[in-house]
Amino acid sequence: MTVSIHDLHLLVDTLESELATANATKDNARAADLQSSLMEMKVLRARLLIADAEAFATQLATSRGEVENAIARIRSKTGLSFVRSLAEDLGIPLPSGKGVHSDILEELPKEPPVASMDQPGRITTGGPSTFVAARMIRPQTILYTDDGGRDFLRVGGSRSWRNCNPGNIRKGGFSKNNGSIGNDGSFAIFPSKKVGRDAIEALLRGRSYGPLTLEAAINRYAPKIENDTDAYVDFVVQQTGLNRSDVLDELLIAQIRSIIGAIEKMEGWKPGEEKPHLPASGFAGDEMLTGGGTDGQGTSAAIGASEEWMNIARREAALPAVQRSEVPGPKSNPRILEYFRVGSNWFDPKKGDEEEWCAVFVNYCLEMSGHVGTNHPGARSFFWNRKNQFIRLPEPRNFSIGVRRYDFSQPNWETGSGHVGFVVDYTSTHVTLLGGNQSETITKQEYPLLVTDGDGTVTAKFVAFMMPVMN
Asked: What sign has the CA pseudo-torsion 71, 74, 79, 80?
């Protein structure tokens, strides 16, 4: 899984602590091995700090391999297996050795959290009830899905509030085992504040923190490389009335919970706006809008706003080919996997970037520009229009969403493939789409409006042109 600066800081801190112990006990063989591993970790940390994001992405496989080798060395030569156990207890993701982008694939669930999400039919209004899945769809915006398949947004506020994570616990095995339903790339997202607080309690009462003093626990929880740890400790002591030397295992539950309250305040808990992830205009998505020069109520407004999603689409299409195209062989382009994470993070792309990704690309462009996608990997989801988030147009218009179908055996198109992209040109017989999964990349491609075989049977057809309803 992805190794972050925070991960390396914690591993370096652990190695430095063990090195100091080995030196103090004059265990020279152990100290020499620890010193070697420590230098490897520091080199990796420095590399990560100075490399720019794009350059580092291409080197990530090598970097993770070196980290894995360093950890293996510690374990095989000195028996420091606790390093990996400690990382797991702290929720620190460590390299899995399964491939450069396996972390993104591993985070995607194997089935929809609510079965109805993969079916046609309108979403019932109301809620929210219990949140069952969550993801970050754009900066300072978390999308939650409840057990009725309804989507809600938490926008603004503090990161801890958006994530229902009052302790800002990192994503990873620990957070998953304690109820997280997603992550924002670095930090876990919990279904409620209570579940987030319970996770802090489980962490502080676990074997990694329980034997520590309050001061040592805060130093581990908020390391000096990222925090003013002394001020953090002072704040917790002042808020709780405890002593720095108090051992967590010896505290009462009420005292542990007072520490949790202080951590919540220190990490920041500022509410923002929570709202349904639906168009606010109230236009019915099934309505076929026609008319004269204004194109019907709502359509002109949507066309005027089309630059919002088209700017995202053009930006992605302008990337170097290596960044926007499928990768030959078993590996996958991380950017295409990101389209799945944002555009439909309940779907498991078992084929990696060779999975059909036209729909998640359109969803990515909509969500990143502040509009409502379908949260589904199939072109048919635009035809379903489950949230009434699209206006149906009687004919193609530039910057609308063109939906193409290949199988006509099911009236409601419950299953089966198709294609979807943004209309950028059209004639009486053809439509040009700017979209993903076109010749294995993001590009413009022309398609006929209708294709028939020799006996006149329709084999491909544009079945809908949709315009996003204005939020």
From this structure: negative
Give domain status of residue 12, yes or no. yes
Asked whether residue 80 falls in the same domain as residue 206, the answer is no
Torsion sign, CA atoms 23, 211, 268, 241: negative
Helix (H, G, I), strand (E, B) or coil at 299: helix
Domain span at 59: 5-100
Verify that 36 and 79 share a domain, yes or no.
yes
At residue 202, does pLDDT exceed 90? Answer: yes
Residue that is written with structure tokens 């205009």 in the block: 281
> Which residues does 18 contact at the CB level (< 8 Å), separation at least 6?
34, 80
Instruction: Find all residues with CB under 8 Å of 214, minimum gap 6, and list them.
Output: 233, 236, 237, 242, 243, 244, 245, 246, 247, 248, 259
pTM for the whole structure:
0.69
Q: What does the pLDDT look like over 310-332, one tens digit per residue?
A: 999 999 999 999 999 999 888 89
Q: What angle do CA 358, 360, 362 make, to 5 degrees?
A: 70
Contacts of 336 (CB under 8 A, 6+ apart): 326, 352, 353, 357, 436
- Domain assignment present for residue 288? The answer is no
Give Cα 303 to chain centroid, integer Å. 29
Residue 304 identity: G
Q: What is the mean pLDDT of residues 246-273?
A: 95
- Chain mean pLDDT for the chain: 82
Categorize the per-residue pLDDT at 7 as very low, low, confident or very high, splitting at 50, 70 and 90. Answer: low
Cα–Cα distance between 337 and 325 in angstroms, integer?
11
- Who wins on pLDDT, 248 or 281? 248
Query: Residue 60 has what pLDDT?
Result: 47
* Alpha-helical segments (H) within 222-357: 229-240, 253-267, 299-317, 321-324, 334-343
**Alpha-carbon distance 451 to 457, whole Å?**
8
Contact of 148 with 124, CB cutoff 8 Å? yes
Is the separation of the CB atoms in 191 and 130 below 8 Å? yes
Residue 149 lies in a domain: no
- Is the model more confident about 285 or about 380? 380
